[in-house]
TrEMBL record:
GO terms for biological process: intracellular signal transduction. InterPro entries: AGC-kinase_C, Kinase-like_dom_sf, Pkinase_C, Prot_kinase_dom, Protein_kinase_ATP_BS, Ribosomal_S6_kinase_II, RSK_N, Ser/Thr_kinase_AS. It catalyses: L-seryl-[protein] + ATP = O-phospho-L-seryl-[protein] + ADP + H(+); L-threonyl-[protein] + ATP = O-phospho-L-threonyl-[protein] + ADP + H(+). This is Ribosomal protein S6 kinase. It is an enzyme of class 2 (transferase). Its cofactor is Mg(2+). One of its GO terms (molecular function) is ATP binding. The active site is at D221 (proton acceptor), D565 (proton acceptor). Belongs to the protein kinase superfamily. AGC Ser/Thr protein kinase family. S6 kinase subfamily. Pfam families: Pkinase, Pkinase_C. Keywords: ATP-binding, Kinase, Nucleotide-binding, Phosphoprotein, Repeat, Serine/threonine-protein kinase, Transferase. CDD domains: STKc_RSK_C, STKc_RSK_N.
Amino acid sequence: MITNGYLHGVLRILRIKSLLISKQKSCSIYKHELLISDGDESTTTEIEINDVAKEGEKANASQFELLKVLGQGSFGKVFLVKKIEGKDLGTLYAMKVLKKATLKGKQCFCMLMHRSPSSCKYNQQKFIFVSFFHSPVRDRIRTKMERNILAQIHHPFVVKLHYAFQTEGKLYLILDFLRGGDLFTRLSKEVMFTEEDVKFYLAELALALDHLHSLGIVYRDLKPENILLDADGHINLTDFGLSKESIEGDEKTYSFCGTVEYMAPEVVNRRGHSTAADWWSLGILMYEMLTGNLPFHGQNRRETMGMILKSKLSMPSFLSPQAQSLLRALFKRIPSHRLGYGPDGMTQIKSHPFFASIDWDKLLAREIEPPFRPTLTGTDQTHYFDPEFTKESPRDSPAVPPSARAHELFRGFSFVAPSVLEESREKYRPLNMRIAMPEFRTKIQDEYIFEEELGTGSYSMCKRCVHKATREEYAVKIISKAKRFYCDEVDILKRYSHHPNIVKIHEVYEDDNSVYLVEELCKGGELLDRIISQKHFSEREAAAVMMKLANAVSYLHTNQVVHRDLKPSNIMYASTSADVDSIRIIDFGFAKQLRAGNGLLMTPCYTAQFAAPEVLKKQGYDMSCDVWSLGVLLYTMLCGETPFATGADDTAAEILERVGEGRFTFSNPAWKDISELAKDLVQRMLHVDPVKRVSAKQILVHPWIVQRNSLPVGNLHYSSSPIKVKSAINQTYKALDRAAKPAPLHPVKASALARRRQLLKGGEVA
């Protein structure tokens, strides 16, 4: 068999038949029948392109303002652009610019005999295109193939092409601007996803792939970098440069292309592959999202290919039986045995137990909430993209034009989406990305007046601010980009701050150095300060406070979020009246979505007096660490002292030893008037073993909470002065901060996954 790598000097014949059919007065279909002979494959395709040359509607580069650089590759750049004229004035798009001269392939010449479709006066007219390629022009063919595929696909989970046009030296694709960035960037930050996250992303990908397969298209390049997230968090497949069209039934294609680690065995051994190859790649992606590693990855490409063909799959034990079953079904080396193979393949995938909780109709209609919703800031639409690119000046530099013969290959490249020309609606709901955005706001100071400082920390400071137009007061948290990664905090607040006892976030601003979170102003001050300073606070009131806090924490935990910093200064009253309903949990700077399959977070985060034992021992921690912190707060509310620090003179070593051993007592005289139910709950919340510690949900059903209205209303007696208690707490925080700093977060490109990707840049072969 003659493979693509040995085709130098072999005559390749491209025969295109073009048929112009009158469809409607305002719409025509330009059909291409493409036959490519590579010596070992022969395929045919028909592509419909609507309104290719509707007068006055064609786009050009002057209609788009360059705003940012989103990415860059060997063939060109991707820009964030804004349409500055036309019906879609002000719409943000991603503009993919490719240099014709760098779409190398070797020498080629084309002989074309045609009549322009726009000039044809007949209802039916045949045109013959004959092109002879002395050597591969694969890159150029794939670029036009990508444009053709995008032009014919309309699906909720596939990126939409709005315009395509060309100049003498460049090709332009105008696509949806997907502000969530790519799945690879998110995977690099998270290391691993939960199975629920993976289930959602895989299900949407399966629907997208099934739609492509129904059109006879094999995607062939499924990997996290080619999966983008839109403004709502739904996936969008992009980059169709390696896709293959017109694969019907059991037909095969023999091209050796893609990223080696994601290739199916039948692609590696070059015996021909069909749409089933995409389902193998889906399994690779699933494995990588669940474990943070690739299942088949050797020291070099040859070793990796050998592993794909022969190595036994290593199945992590922490994966659920359903996840393991799906992986094994997708990793069948014989394509006909693989889940997804054949005409009923998608039905088999939908019915797999791993997807039992998925409502496929709702998923297709985009009615299921994604696990991650990108936060849209007021000033910058690109903070989910690599700063290495976004900080560049957006310039579309001139390009050296290719030879005139090569230029002919791109004849007919221009395209205007029907949705731009007419506001018609297709079978599927269009992607909700063409949002008319206001002009980018420049500075937060243009809208807010900054007042006095409210507090400061290691990574941020907080100030009171006043909105210039409404005169409403807010708190603005100013986070230094150089010191801390802020996206998790913003994302969590955007998604969960509607809970009545979680601080509300109003707006987010960003400049080169800082991120500004405009939040609800908590005028009532810190909860513990108010409690230990007032003379009238009862056990019944303490139970009411704990009920509110446990309810908020239970809500976060239900959504797989841990706060990780529930110290007293992060629990405040929004109202000056200190009403229990105005309690707010603030400062989500250390908050995180749980991601590992075993539920544990392995990034140590020390929070002084309120750090759980397993945190201090660096064993990892989960939701129970938040319960521990609430237990410390409850202990302090009831007796006026902290359980593990008795004063400002306690050393860090002494405090850490008590915390690590779970050593505390009820010997303080204040405890003699406290109910046994309260003591029981404190003991359960402060249990040194996180497995035996109560959950936030269990706190809510504990008799002390359930029967709170029958608890004593007499004032609690604090033996220590508020100043002494505050001093002991602060001294503990300072000691522990010096003893153990949280692990610094590094840029995405520093992650192991990113480094591996860098090594694999040569992995895509042609």
